[in-house]
Amino acid sequence: MSHISVITITIKDLNALKAAVREFGAEFIEGQRTYAWWGKSVGDTPLPAGMTNEQLGKCDHCIKVEGVNYEIGVVKTKDGYTLAYDAYNRGAGPNGIRADGGKLLAKFGNGLKKLVQSYALNVAEMKARSAGWLTRRTALPNGAVKLSLTGM
User: Fold this and answer.
1) What is the pLDDT of residues 91-107, one digit of tens each?
2) DSSP per-residue string spanning 98-127
């Protein structure tokens, strides 16, 4: 059972993504060309838009979480990169890897929204700092994060 999902965000700054990955205690593996997932599409869900069966499981870089079998692929697109992952969480795939994609969602949020939020914050902070601003994050009760900028 494969359920590959692709995030509808374009990653344009790999340094900001690497910083976001570090914030979660995960590892960005540069140049890893495959990511761990079920291993083949069984046709029970549609393929992500623009992807073929041959592209599933292939990437340009990878995000690895210690203690989790499945990984997140950082996949090159015409505009930058996107994130691909398998959230399936039962049994072992034809490749013998135990399906534990739910652990990725537990770590990074449904749809990887916590990772995407952290990436966006890192992009904003890096741009602000390069323009001479000091930045400060404040966690809000609803899970959002407020980014404050102060002139130097």
Assistant:
1) 888 888 899 999 999 99
2) B--HHHHHHHH-GGGHHHHHHHHHHHHHHH
Residues 119-140: tens digit of each pLDDT: 999 999 999 999 999 999 999 9
Q: Is residue 30 part of a domain?
A: yes
Per 3-state DSSP, the chain is made up of helix, strand and coil in percentages (nearest 5) of: 30, 25, 45
**Domain limits at 8?**
4-111
Q: Does residue 12 lie within any of the structural domains?
A: yes
Residue 145 domain flag: no
Q: Collapse the DSSP code of 89 into the 3-class scheme (helix H, G, I; strand E, B; otherwise coil) and give the result.
A: coil
- What is the domain count for the chain? 1
Cα–Cα distance for residue pair 95/78, rounded to 1 Å: 30
End-to-end CA distance of the chain: 53
Helices marked H in the chain: 14-23, 101-108, 113-130
pTM of structure: 0.91
Residue 62 lies in a domain: yes
The strand pairing partners of 148, in sequence order, are 136
* Residue 38 to residue 107: CA distance in whole angstroms: 19
